[in-house]
Design goal:
By secondary structure, the protein is mainly beta. It has one helix at 133-137, and strands at 18-19, 24-27, 30-33, 40-49, 55-66, 72-76, 88-90, 94-97, 101-110, 121-129, 150-157, 167-175, 184-191, 197-207, 213-223, 228-234, 242-251, 257-265. A hairpin with an 8-residue loop joins strand 12 and strand 13. The protein is globular. Residues 1-21 form the signal peptide.
Length: 266
C-alpha cells in the first residue's frame, strides 16, 4: 500500500499583502464598511497572480478576537458577539486567478435593519487555495508535498456615528523578575473610544543619574473598541540603575498622544 503524505502549509497574511513564494498578492488586506441599518454596501478587493500557474481559491468566513497579548484567535463564523460574518457575501464561493492576471472580488455587506447604532463588528474572509490536478499528479508515485496557502481579509463595520478615537494607558510594569535576559516592560492599553484604532506604541528609558537615553523599537497595534492589549518591550541585558520609563502612544490619522511614566530601579 502506497503511503501518501500531504503537507499543508498555511500562511495567513495579516498586515502583509504578499505570498512571496507563490507570487500572489492582495490589495487591500482590510475592508472598512460603514452605513445605516438596512443599507447594502459593496467594496472591492484585488488578487494579483504574477506567477506562471493558475490558482483556485475557496472563499469562507470566520470570526476572530484578539487576546490581550495581541494574538488572534479564529472562531467559527457567527460565534463571536461582534461577528458580522452573516452580513457578508460574494458573487462566487470559489474563484480562479489565471497566471499573469488580476482578479477583482466584490464583497457585499448587507447591514441588518436591526443593527446596533453603536457596536463595531468584525469578521474575516479567507481565500483558501485548492489543489489542482497538476498538484495531485506530483504525489501519485510516492511521497509528495502539496503546499497550499490561505489569505485572510479583515472585514470591519463601524456605525456612521462612531468617530471617537481614544486609547488609555492603564498600567506600566516590569515583567520577567530577576531574569535579566528576559526582562521586559509591559504597557497595558485600553481602547476607550468607539472606533477601530491603529497606533504605534513607543517606549524609552532615561537613566536619571547619567541622563543616558535608551529608545526601544516601536510596536504597532490595532484595537477594537472596549478591548485591552498588553504591549511588551524587551529590555537590554544587564540594565542597572535608576530609570524613568516613558510610554508614548501615537494614534494613526491623529495628532493626539497618550503618555505614561513610571520610575524603575534595575
Amino acid at each position: 500500500m502506497r503511503k501518501f503524505i500531504y503537507l499543508f502549509i498555511f500562511f495567513i497574511l495579516i498586515g502583509s499583502s504578499s505570498i512571496l513564494a507563490q507570487s500572489i498578492s492582495m490589495s487591500p488586506t482590510r475592508l472598512f464598511f460603514t452605513g445605516n441599518p438596512g443599507e447594502k454596501v459593496t467594496k472591492t478587493v484585488t488578487l494579483q497572480n504574477s506567477s506562471d500557474k493558475d490558482y483556485v481559491f475557496n472563499l469562507n468566513y470566520k470570526d476572530w478576537v484578539r487576546e490581550e497579548d495581541g494574538n488572534k484567535v479564529y472562531l467559527d463564523a457567527g460565534s463571536s458577539k461582534t461577528s458580522n460574518a452573516s452580513w457578508m457575501s460574494t458573487l462566487e464561493n470559489a474563484i480562479t486567478v489565471p497566471a499573469k492576471t488580476t482578479k477583482e472580488i466584490v464583497v457585499t455587506m448587507q447591514i441588518p435593519a436591526n443593527a446596533s447604532l453603536s457596536a463595531v463588528t468584525n469578521s474575516m474572509l479567507f481565500f483558501t487555495q485548492l489543489p489542482q490536478q497538476a498538484d495531485k499528479a506530483r504525489i501519485q508515485n510516492g511521497i509528495g508535498i502539496i503546499t497550499l496557502f490561505e489569505v485572510g481579509l479583515h472585514i470591519f463595520y463601524t456605525p456612521p456615528g462612531n468617530h471617537v478615537k481614544s486609547l488609555d494607558i492603564t498600567n506600566i510594569s516590569e515583567v520577567g523578575g530577576d531574569n535579566t535576559k528576559n526582562r521586559k516592560v509591559a504597557v497595558n492599553i485600553h481602547n476607550d473610544g468607539n472606533t477601530i484604532n491603529d497606533a504605534t506604541v513607543e517606549f524609552e528609558l532615561t537613566n536619571t543619574d547619567s541622563g543616558k537615553e535608551i529608545k526601544l523599537p516601536a510596536i504597532s497595534i490595532s484595537m477594537l473598541p472596549d478591548t485591552n492589549q498588553v504591549v511588551q518591550f524587551s529590555l537590554p541585558e544587564n540594565l542597572s540603575g535608576n530609570f524613568l520609563g516613558v510610554a508614548i502612544i501615537k494614534m494613526a490619522e491623529s495628532n493626539d498622544l497618550r503618555v505614561g511614566e513610571k520610575n524603575f530601579k534595575f
